[in-house]
Each structure stands twice: as C-alpha cells, then as structure tokens.
Amino acid sequence: MADKLTSRQLAQLAALEPLPQRFAQIHRLVEEIAGLRADDATTRRLCRILDESRASMNSVGLTPLSEQLGVMGMLARRGAGIQMKVRGLREGLAGLKINYEGALRSAKTPESRPPEELGTKS
Fold it and tell me: Cα(33)–Cα(112) distance, rounded to whole angstroms?
C-alpha cells in the first residue's frame, strides 16, 4: 500500500504552489529598486507581496519561510541606503529559494507510518 500525504502536507503544497511566480515578481521589483527606477508605489507593492506570502506560509505552519519573508518585508520598509536594502533583499531571496525547496521536498515526502502498522521484516 502506498503512503499518502496528510491533509497538512496537501495544504502546504497548495500554499507553496504560487511561490515561484511570486519569486519572479519579487526579483523584478528588487531589480527595479536597484536600478533606481522605483518609486514608493514599487516598494509598497513589494511589501504587499512579501506580507501576503508571509501570511499564507504562516497559516500552514511553514515557519522558516514565514520568518524569511518577514525579515525581507522589514528590510524593504526601512529607509536605509538603497545599496544595503537591495543587497539584503537579494540575499533574502536566495535564502527564500533554498527554504522553499526544502519545504517542498518535506511536503511531498509521505510521513512514515507508526511501527505497529509497518510490521516486521525478517
């Protein structure tokens, strides 16, 4: 009998599905900020995408992704130098992609069954 995914894992997969498109949006907005073509509306849009993603990750229990998105949102809101902001957001996006791959792998891997259901093999 094949192992099945739990309802929690299915919810996590549904929440993780739109993230690659959001990563592309985040990357584009960060590069606009880096190229000095951005205005306040661009920064607000970036913050909104980060906050929405953070809320969806937090709702399904993906805390590492949620925390990374929160740090990036805080950094995007700061009024510090553009170079520091862009570098932090780029590094955050790279870390976010790594966390995403780990969360996706974890959500796709069926959880092991209790030992009494497995039986013993000799």
Answer: 45
